[in-house]
Amino acid sequence: MILDLDIGNTLSKWRLKDADSSEIRSRGAVWTREQWKPGADIPDLDVVEAVRISSVARAAVLEQTVSLLHRSVPQVHVARSTPEALGVVNGYVEPHRLGVDRWMGVLAGYQLAGGCCAVDCGSAITVDFVLPGGRHLGGYILPGLRLMKESLKLGTRNVAIDPDSEAEELLLPGTRTVEAVNHGIYLAAVSAVNRIYSEVCDREGVALPMLLTGGDARVVARGVQSPHAVWPDMVYGGLEACFPLTAAERNGRMSGAPRVPAPAGLEKIRAGLAFSMLL
Ligand SMILES: Nc1ncnc2c1ncn2[C@@H]1O[C@H](COP(=O)(O)OP(=O)(O)OP(=O)(O)O)[C@@H](O)[C@H]1O
Ligand SMILES: CC(C)(CO)[C@@H](O)C(=O)NCCC(=O)O
Ligand SMILES: [K+]
């Protein structure tokens, strides 16, 4: 079995992948601030022959996790943000400072769709761009839905946005505090993603496919106007592309990769942008 680990600021997500069949056998998540200890919701390490890790947590968390894993797993691969990988040139002035989760998302997106816009809706919302030739432009970081809500301190932090609500409903004026907050932050997030996407496509003169991942991807995607695909395993896809271990991975296949719809035409994107600037 292969253990893939995505250690975020809040949640550490894992999945177990069968090295022979490429099937995903199980998944889970644990709080990043809590230590990995047997008994918690963590996978059985006895069956694991290799681990691949993307971590944006404090260095100490990664060190502890790696040393714990090394006791029972022969192969431990830790992803890093590099100046260049798999045909993509990192756009950061200091490439190693780009969050490795963003780098994994960009590499997976590029491998799947070529030039693209990669959006991660987690504790933070990040929007990254890579052009068809492989030049990563850098991106945008804004607070995620939960962080925005917590920062308001209106006693609404425990009432999450229902991920099944319709976007239309979430865009109406709220008539209670919790609704006003949920609709406000939702509008902030989707407006930002829509605007950022159109601005960058307009500026670069190219309509890019859009991919979304992260805990809030589904609900944010419902407010995104441009054609897009949600790919919950996008960060894992980057790990598969960087450290291919199975036959399928060596052939460039990434688990759970969605069909990516063609983007809207550049003229349509530009018209939408011009319209939103009139408002
Ligand atoms: N039990 C939960 N705990 C925390 N967040 C949750 C939970 N369930 C859903 N969420 C939503 O998922 C989002 C976090 O998504 P995700 O798991 O992608 O975070 P993350 O990418 O791990 O963030 P980070 O990488 O910074 O830890 C939160 O903004 C929140 O709205
Ligand atoms: C932005 C987050 C928190 C998103 O998980 C992560 O990618 C990170 O810690 N990045 C480092 C800062 C940067 O990417 O510029
Ligand atoms: K993340």
From TrEMBL:
Binding-site positions, substrate: Y92, G99, V100, D101, R102, T177
Reported cofactor(s): K(+); NH4(+)
Subcellular localization(s) per the UniProt record: Cytoplasm
UniProt xrefs under Gene3D superfamilies: 3.30.420.40
Domain of life from the UniProt record: Bacteria
SUPFAM superfamilies: Actin-like ATPase domain
GO MF terms held by the record: ATP binding; metal ion binding; pantothenate kinase activity
Function recorded in the entry: Catalyzes the phosphorylation of pantothenate (Pan), the first step in CoA biosynthesis.
Protein name: Type III pantothenate kinase
Naturally occurring in which organism (per UniProt): Billgrantia gudaonensis
